[in-house]
Design goal:
By secondary structure, the protein is an alpha+beta fold. Helix content is 32%, strand content 13%. The chain has helices at 50-55, 58-75, 92-101, 112-118, 125-133, 160-169; strands spanning 14-20, 23-30, 33-38, 110-111, 146-147. A three-stranded antiparallel beta sheet has the order 1-2-3, covered by helices on one side. Strand 2 (23-30) and strand 3 (33-38) form a beta hairpin. Helix 4 crosses helix 5 (125-133). The chain is globular. The structure holds a DNA duplex.
Amino acid sequence: MPRLEQPIPRGALTAVAIDTPAGTFVARFSDHGLAQLDFPGRTFPASARASELLADPSLPRWVKLTKGALLAILAGRHPGEFPPLDVSSGTEFQQRVWSVLREIPAGETRSYGEVAAAIHSPKATRAVGSACGANPIPLLIPCHRVLASGGKVGGFSGGLEWKQRLLMVEGVIAQELPMRAASLGKG
DNA sequence: ATCGTCATATGAA
DNA sequence: TTCATATGACGAT
């Protein structure tokens, strides 16, 4: 299949700050939907302004949906309606991986190997890890539900604390940084 | 249990 | 082509 070497050029994104009990996230929207979500504590853009919000009538709704989904996921509740997700920045392979991630329900996990098998590239486990790391919309695209084999937590671009926190909220792991075993059923 | 090493897919430079 | 990865399997300790 054709290899997509360069991301598809897109117009400028509109950044919007979203406050949650876990901190202020920054969501960036394209014409097609939510394109990027940044964890709190990153460089805060000066572009989250009301005038931009008013520029596109679909934005306020997307922001509301994004915030609602975010708050629900952080609280371990079932998220309601998602905004449209614009994953056009990813290569075809990455988008296949991300679409698999979106089908993992809260409270469940997959291994990198299982995700690789799901996209019919059973040997691409390592590439799946890279694709997870390239996920532009964490939380809504639940890359945190992909663990290494044997219940090991594995890595996380946004910081392992976040991965752990999310897995705890979803009842997958119990407490502190096991860093390796998710100590579930077999104690 | 922990570590080192090798195998392998994908993507960026 | 070379290098870097959020892996996985295996063997040595």
